[in-house]
Amino acid sequence: MKKIIFFLLLIILISGLVYKLYLDKNFSASLSIENEAIKQTNFLTDKKAVLYFSTTADQDMDGKGVSLAVFIKDSGEADAFKMKGLELGSVATSQNEVLLVDKNKIRLVGDTYKEFGMDKSQYTGERTGYLEKEKLYFTVFNTGVGAKGGYDSNILYGNKRGFHKENIPHYIAASGIDQSEIVVLTQDNLKEEFHIRKVKLSKNDITTQDILKINHSKETNFSTMSAILSDETFYYFVGQKTLGEVTETIDTDIVLYRIDKNTHAQDEFTLSSYRDEKNITAHYPFNIKNSAHLYNDVLYYANGLGEVFEFETKTGKVNKTLTMKNVRKDGVRHNEELFYKDDNLYVLRHDEKLKEKYYIEHYSLTEGKKIENIKINGLNEILQSIKGKSIYSYDFKMLK
Amino acid sequence: MKKHLVTSVLTFCLAAFSVPSAFAQDQISYKKEILRMQPDLTSAELLSSVRSIAKNTGNTEDALLQQIYEELKHDQSKSKKENGTIGTMGSSGGTVSVGPSSKGNFYYTASQTAYMNHGHVGMYYSSDVIVESVPETGVRTISTTLRKVDQGDAQVKSVTTSSTNRNNAANWAFSRVGIDAYSYNFVTNRTTSHIGDKNCSKLVWSAYKLNGNLDLDVDGGLGVYPRDVRDAPGTQLVRNI
Predict the structure, then answer these.
(1) Compositionally biased, Low complexity: which spans (chain B) (predicted)?
(2) In this complex, do B10 and A389 lie within 8 Å of one another by their Cβ atoms?
């Protein structure tokens, strides 16, 4: 009897120690890429995609918010690099290099590893990108607190030689890149106005130029459903116009806004409409910031129902070009993400029935059909290893 | 020898894995326990607040510390009860956008920290913009389409009052954008000024306290926590998320 008690106590002791040492932590480190590994110049050589996940800003009350840059190797294996949290954080890419940002650090990974601390932590991202001509990375934040009582969107920009901090004194509803400039759709909530502005980066300064006020009826509620895209003549973005009161159902139109850069003429094209819709967020794109794409005079827009619409910029004609299969119609997501490149649309998908829950679907936009499924191994385990916090997907980019 | 070993192992286990709640009630240092449960709150801030309340109410500092501790324990027990039914990524394991709702409504979501699930609330400034107070940033706005929460773990609620009060409350909350920084003090936030640093529940509570004299707090006391706002009388469920 005493032996049984002794062994029972011993088991409790060992179990307790194991719990204290390994399990009573927020996160598993076993799936993380080591700091030294990510600093290797050949780190990206065998990586074909990167995903960005983060906790939300409210979960950083204890300073333990977390973000993950999950790299997918050529073999399909997923490896996570753990950073601090940044809600709506994203990844910028250039040739053989990626920009990773968390709440207080910028990292350049690839040909040369560099990291830069920030003088002030940021908690909400807006956009990251790379301006090819200027050879400048930038990261724009939804900073919130304005020293002068306004709204601040801080911007850090630079390259391996260093980063410079400036401020865009507006709340940004959508943003994008037009060749060597950043284009933002700013929202003045008091005046209920939206403005298109251009942000030009120079070595030690930025200039923000007001382009035009968007024609917007105050009788309808508006929210953006895409980034701002541009060609030689126009700016484009997709928005949701909500008609009437939002109750348990919603009446809404999804509209493509087209703005002539020279004449400032504004046109609207309805892509789809929903009436008395109960699942009011179901049509939201998997990632609003990556939902639209311009290629060969066609603008593509992928909604959350798996439908991809095409808008022919020369004729104004709207078509549905493809529909993904087995997409949930209730707005519930499992980290689905979108990435466009030229004629290709890559979609991160989740299927609970599969052993490896996540995979990438590869579509041809011009052919309107799926080309292949790309395997991912171990992503679900990485996400499941996050304990005590909720993390959400915010970006996805193919690297090859 | 074996008896001695068994006793030693048992003693070690108790010492190593015991939790403070195992101590007798009269041995609890309320201040220590409050700071353990709210580690981002500084001792100086807690004591300064308690002294100020004691001066204004005539209560003893010890009694106030005990009240704060009991309110925290109550919120913690609610959190544990809800965590028992809701997983880390929501009951279904999926996530959703908060989505639109009417101006003046608010949303609640679970919000995990290392020490407890505090919950979080934010207010609809418009159908498509949320105004909320988040750590360090202070009061920010974010699109309802971009704000993600765990499915099954969140809800949108309305406040039963005039549309004027709802609009004014939302306008007031929005007016704090860029002005009020974040406060880690949940424990006495009912007694602190409406103007100044505040957390998420204080923002919504103050907005309606100043606009309609509504007390969006289910159990009163010294602190208004996100769940207190969520469960307050005079609030109606609009939809579960």
Answers:
(1) 84-94
(2) no
